[in-house]
Design goal:
It contains five helices and six strands; from the N terminus they run H-E-E-H-H-H-E-E-E-E-H. The protein is an alpha+beta fold.
């Protein structure tokens, strides 16, 4: 009789264990499906009104408007400099640099800082045109680059610069910048 009771209790415990295993397995599958759905869904962030048009960034890609505004700001920051603010200037540009391009960008900037430190040379850039390619993650900026010694303008030239970008997650970061030698090269 004791063996019958022990057998019934063992069977009841086995049924409870099977139900618990099925519930745990179902819970795992539901959680796995939810994580998969959340991970594959595009994320979107609405940006505060900083321009006349509404802006948002999405994990599915960078919009032309957003790339244009970031390019404008980075071009002005990069191409307007004076000897008094060189350390801050370099620090701010490196904050938006892509980690993979950080070393090469830093080397370029250190060269500029070394050449300009202790001099009276300043540079001002006025944008006259801006083209963006959100698919290729590139942008070109045309403008008038003026060089000053003290308060005297010593050079004023029309220049074109190309910027390369990387867009990962919701972060747009600078990978390269260069002076475009001629307008034919800028069209490639």
């Amino acid at each position: 009789m004791l063996s019958d009771i022990a057998h019934q209790r063992a069977q009841a415990l086995l049924r409870q264990r099977k139900v618990l295993l099925l519930a745990g397995g179902a819970s795992f599958l539901v959680n796995l499906a939810l994580v998969s759905a959340l991970g594959s869904r595009d994320r979107e962030v609405i940006l505060q009104p900083i321009s006349t048009r509404p802006l948002s960034i999405s994990s599915s890609g960078v919009s032309a408007d957003y790339l244009e505004l970031v390019t404008r700001d980075v071009a002005l920051m990069l191409l307007n400099r004076s000897p008094q603010g060189l350390d801050y200037w370099m620090e701010q540009i490196l904050k938006i640099a892509n980690p993979a391009a950080y070393g090469s960008l830093r080397a370029e900037l250190v060269k500029i800082v070394t050449e300009q430190r202790g001099s009276d040379l300043s540079q001002a850039f006025v944008i006259t045109g801006l083209d963006v390619d959100p698919k290729g993650l590139t942008s070109t900026v045309d403008g008038d680059l003026k060089t000053f010694v003290g308060g005297q303008v010593i050079a004023s030239e029309q220049k074109r610069f190309r910027f390369g970008w990387d867009y990962t997650g919701l972060r747009l970061s600078l990978t390269s910048f260069a002076l475009v030698a001629n307008s034919k090269e800028a069209l490639r």
